[in-house]
Specification:
Strand 3 and strand 4 form a beta hairpin. This protein has 2 domains: about 45 residues, no CATH class; about 130 residues, no CATH class. The chain is about 45% helix and about 15% strand. By secondary structure, the chain is of the alpha+beta class. The strands form 4 sheets. It has a two-stranded antiparallel sheet with strand order 1-2. Strands 3-4 form a two-stranded antiparallel ribbon. A two-stranded antiparallel ribbon has the order 5-6. The radius of gyration is 23 Å and the shape is elongated.
Length: about 180
């Protein structure tokens, strides 16, 4: 049992954060600590966001590029589109919603959630880079992109891109994490 410095209540040690590096329990209970933290954030919100947003944006961009590099570079596996704004990650087995529920607990969690999950697991197979048009076309066409038979009026055989785990991609992830 320990007494909180802020509220003065006697509480169990599990109600206090433990500082592993200094090996002691915090002087304030978790509830008081959260109140202080929230008040500080509300007071300094703009300063905090101005500093964090560019850093987070850069981290998300690097993680996305590393994921694309691990799954065959930043190019659509079907039509060859290279514009980053159009590219996305595709679940080869068409099990994206089930996969997102497993990763984040909800079907609409994509992007950074998925990229982080993949990076922590060293980019497992089962994914490919597609442009949004090919991804949507695959979704609307029973799991097969309309480009599969023809692309720009000439025949083109397209298969799933194999995962390519380059050392450059893995080094990007370790720097981003």
């Amino acid at each position: 049992m320990k007494v909180c410095n802020d509220c003065g209540e006697e509480k169990d040690l599990s109600e206090f954060y433990y500082h592993r590096t200094r090996q002691y329990h915090a002087p304030n209970c978790k509830l008081c600590y959260m109140k202080v933290t929230k008040a500080f954030y509300r007071k300094n919100r703009e300063k905090i966001r101005a500093k964090e947003n560019p850093l987070n944006r850069e981290r998300r961009k690097n993680l996305r590029l590393a994921t694309f590099a691990a799954y065959g570079d930043a190019v659509c596996a079907c039509c060859g589109e290279r514009e980053l704004a159009f590219l996305t990650l595709d679940h080869i087995e068409n099990n994206g919603a089930a996969e997102r529920r497993k990763i984040a607990g909800r079907a609409n969690a994509a992007g950074i959630w998925t990229y982080t999950w993949l990076a922590k697991r060293c980019f497992p197979p089962g994914y490919q880079v597609l442009c949004m048009n090919c991804n949507f076309g695959k979704r609307m066409n029973g799991g097969v992109c309309p480009h599969r038979g023809t692309c720009n009026d000439y025949s083109q055989e397209v298969g799933a891109s194999a995962p390519k785990r380059s050392t450059a991609a893995l080094s990007l992830v370790t720097r981003a994490a």
